[in-house]
Design goal:
Length: 249
């Protein structure tokens, strides 16, 4: 089964999915494998690999090690063309729609496309929108950050993304953000589009994750949480349980 089909099957089954983001710059490959194994036990639905600052060859080395030990789909979450690596199952082929620099909208994608084909990685077209505070992703991607109180701008961009043919839209508050994307913004975006809405950045508390799901998020991404907890499995289990039951209730 293709990864996109798998994601859609989870959304059909549970109404919501949880992805765990691993940044290869933040731990050595051995530790990343241990985290990935615990995330699998906690029933996360997929793994993402990437980070804003870039990790060079560590991306490929870490991805290879994870694939040896973990069955979950591994999706590249690239910050640049150099992050295209052969060991992932799929890649979010993403465009930072609210960048002020065309390089992050179409340039890096052109430079990476032939390699995606050569490595036979499944590309999953995704529109990426960075919301205040935006963190390193906002700075590196030269984003004109969407103000937190301007839900209509996020909704307009998301609808444009759908009309362009993107199959997912990702609302990003920035890794490690002190506040997640506002629920009112998630709600406004969900009302305007029919493609799945991914939300990430600053989500560490199960209650916050559940509220974002109730507002309409289809996929919740957590990354920093796994770096800040002593027990990855139990912390992720709580987030996964919260979002799956938020959808049922
Ligand atoms: C970052 O949205 C992801 O790109 C995850 O953010 O690290 O804050 O969980 P956190």
């Amino acid at each position: 089964m293709k990864v996109e089909e798998y994601i859609n099957s989870i959304l059909k089954r549970d109404g919501v999915a949880h992805f765990t983001l691993l940044d290869p710059a933040k731990q050595d490959p051995h530790e990343a494998v241990e985290i990935a194994k615990q995330a699998e036990k906690a029933k996360t639905d997929a793994l993402m690999i990437g980070g804003s600052i870039g990790a060079g060859q560590l991306v490929d080395i870490t991805a290879k090690e994870i694939k040896k030990e973990v069955k979950l789909p591994l999706i590249a979450f690239p910050s640049n063309a150099s992050d295209v690596c052969s060991s992932v199952d799929a890649i979010f082929f993403m465009s930072l729609l609210n960048s002020t620099n065309p390089y992050y909208i179409t340039g890096a994608q052109a430079l990476g496309a032939l390699l995606v084909k050569k490595y036979k990685i499944e590309p999953i077209p995704m529109a990426y929108l960075i919301i205040e505070p935006g963190g390193a992703a906002g700075w590196v991607g030269e984003a004109k950050l969407i103000p937190r109180d301007k839900s209509e701008i996020a909704a307009a961009y998301s609808l444009a993304a759908q009309y362009f043919g993107f199959r997912f839209v990702y609302l990003e508050a920035g890794s490690g953000a002190d506040q997640a994307v506002p629920v009112s913004m998630v709600h406004a975006v969900k009302k305007s589009v029919s493609i799945p809405v991914i939300v990430g950045g600053g989500i560490r508390a199960p209650q916050v994750a559940a509220e974002i799901v109730k507002a309409g998020a289809d996929i919740i991404v957590t990354g920093t949480l796994i770096e800040r907890t002593l027990n990855v499995e139990s912390s992720l289990e709580k987030i996964v349980a919260a979002i799956k039951s938020a959808k049922v209730s």
